[in-house]
């Protein structure tokens, strides 16, 4: 007597490859939807929630400051529109080789010997 496909599948303990593919596709889609809905980025943020990045005057050094506070002495806010938001974004890379001098002018960082 021949078994039907349904009864053969029920007799095996592991799910079939088609079911695994469907479950995998569903999980991937759910994860992508979660990221879109929550507004999360897959890139690392420069600063945490409630903080903003500041630039060390005269060098490429940086820090993160609580949004309720002013930059500490020797640090300034990044110029408007040139604020790095994520690691390796356009402005993060730019500010690795540039800084602001004491007069507020953007200059290239001199290479260290």
Task: Using brief descriptors, characterize the structure shown.
113 residues, alpha+beta, 2 domains, three-stranded antiparallel beta sheet, two-stranded antiparallel sheet, 3 helices, 30% helix, elongated
Instruction: Count every helix, treating DSSP H or I runs of 4 or more residues as helices.
Output: 3
For the record, the count of structural domains works out to 2
- Residue windows where pLDDT falls under 50 for at least 5 positions: none
β content, as a range?
15-25%
The neighbouring-strand order within the major sheet is 2-1-3
The biggest beta sheet reads:
3 strands, antiparallel
Q: Classify the helix fraction into a percent range.
A: 25-40%
Mean pLDDT: 80
The total count of strands amounts to: 5
How big is the Rg?
A: 26 Å
Secondary-structure class? alpha+beta
Distance between the termini: 84 Å
Q: Based on Cα principal axes, name the global outline.
A: elongated
> What is the H/E string?
HHEEEHEE
């Amino acid at each position: 007597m021949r078994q039907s496909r349904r009864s053969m599948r029920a007799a095996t303990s592991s799910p079939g490859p088609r079911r695994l593919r469907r479950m995998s596709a569903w999980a991937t889609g759910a994860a992508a939807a979660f990221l879109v809905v929550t507004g999360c980025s897959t890139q690392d943020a420069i600063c945490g929630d409630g903080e903003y990045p500041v630039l060390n005057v005269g060098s490429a050094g940086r820090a993160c400051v609580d949004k309720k506070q002013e930059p500490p002495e020797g640090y300034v806010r990044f110029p408007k529109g040139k604020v790095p938001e994520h690691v390796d974004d356009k402005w993060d890379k730019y500010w690795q080789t540039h800084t602001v001098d004491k007069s507020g002018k953007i200059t290239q960082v001199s290479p260290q010997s």
